[in-house]
Inverse folding.
């Protein structure tokens, strides 16, 4: 558990042409089932997530750091809300309603995770808090990181009665734009300072995936997982698959699956969000986490480029020390008509729900 005093500070920012003094804090959520989460409004990040295993032993299951200065200068995507658009946009280019746009190219030729200064580096306003939830708001100005339209975004983190950390994203815009959020949580279910994730067992309930090109952007094809290393429909020990030459050699998994739609039973159970369904399961050290989401796709990333930094528990983080389960739209969706549309227009409400449920 991180000391709240290490986050309690005021930071001067310039946003929308106006100078403001914004407070950064750390907000602790608790549930009756024993879950505890700490959320900061810097990047809308999960700082800690304390989860008991089957024997009742508690551990912090997300990587991270002890001080705000470290969160600002080290692994800036750790456990953050990613936007406006998660993942890659090829060459940082897209056309919307006949107008061409050029975004920052911060991942080789591509735009990654919303650009150079995405949602993960901004200070969000806290607009609601209870013992088990916190709601954050951010206004992304027209032209920010090259995206059109002023977008108003809210994110609510909540600990639910069925032992889950729920994340609800909502957004509106005053002009046509792109939207596609995710949370970039770095999970290690054995505890954040436990080293490699080889012994984690992963299941992804998906029959198809999107192949990518030499820049790791989708080709536009949708392929069956049958007979490929992408077939995780049955549980697989990550260490038995992570170094397959199909993935990034010596690095690990960083791939996108097309998720199955919700069943009729799931739709009946989730009337407010009928597309919410179980899409993946991750297990290790007596903890099992179900991922449930309304999103159409899931990017699984095994921390392939984690720098050698000292984490919260005092041990050094390295590659393959975590698994990110990023529920989102397909990468580069705006440039492929066969992918779900990422376009948000005035008068529409974007809503996405993702839950990390511990069973």
């Amino acid at each position: 558990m991180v000391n709240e005093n290490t986050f309690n500070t005021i930071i001067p920012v310039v946003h929308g042409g106006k100078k403001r003094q914004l407070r950064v804090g750390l907000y602790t959520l608790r549930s009756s089932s024993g879950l505890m989460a700490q959320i900061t409004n810097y990047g809308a990040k999960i700082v800690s997530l304390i989860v008991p295993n089957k024997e009742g032993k508690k551990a912090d299951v997300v990587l991270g750091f002890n001080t705000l200065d470290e969160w600002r200068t080290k692994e800036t995507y750790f456990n953050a809300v990613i936007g406006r658009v998660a993942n890659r946009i090829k060459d940082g280019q897209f056309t919307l309603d006949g107008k061409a746009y050029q975004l920052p190219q911060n991942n080789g030729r591509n735009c990654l995770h919303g650009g150079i200064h995405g949602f993960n580096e901004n200070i969000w306003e806290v607009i609601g808090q209870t013992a088990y939830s916190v709601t954050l708001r951010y206004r992304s100005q027209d032209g920010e990181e090259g995206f059109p339209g002023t977008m108003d975004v809210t994110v609510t983190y909540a600990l639910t009665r069925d032992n889950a950390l729920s994340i609800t994203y909502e957004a509106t815009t005053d002009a046509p734009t792109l939207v596609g959020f995710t949370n970039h949580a770095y999970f290690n279910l054995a505890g954040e300072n436990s080293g490699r994730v080889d012994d984690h067992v992963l299941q992804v309930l998906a029959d198809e995936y999107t192949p990518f090109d030499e820049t790791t952007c989708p080709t536009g094809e949708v392929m069956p997982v049958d007979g490929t290393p992408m077939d995780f429909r049955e549980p697989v020990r990550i260490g038995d698959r992570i170094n397959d030459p199909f993935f990034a050699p010596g690095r690990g998994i960083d791939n996108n699956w097309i998720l199955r739609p919700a069943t009729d039973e799931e739709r009946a159970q989730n009337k407010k969000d009928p597309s919410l369904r179980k899409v993946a399961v991750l297990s290790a050290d007596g903890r099992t986490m179900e991922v449930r989401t309304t999103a159409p796709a899931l990017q699984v990333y095994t921390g392939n480029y984690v720098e050698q930094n000292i984490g919260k528990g005092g041990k050094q983080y390295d590659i393959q020390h975590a698994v990110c389960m990023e529920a989102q739209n397909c990468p580069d969706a705006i440039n492929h008509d066969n992918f779900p549309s990422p376009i948000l227009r005035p008068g529409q409400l974007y809503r996405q729900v993702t839950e990390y449920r511990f069973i």
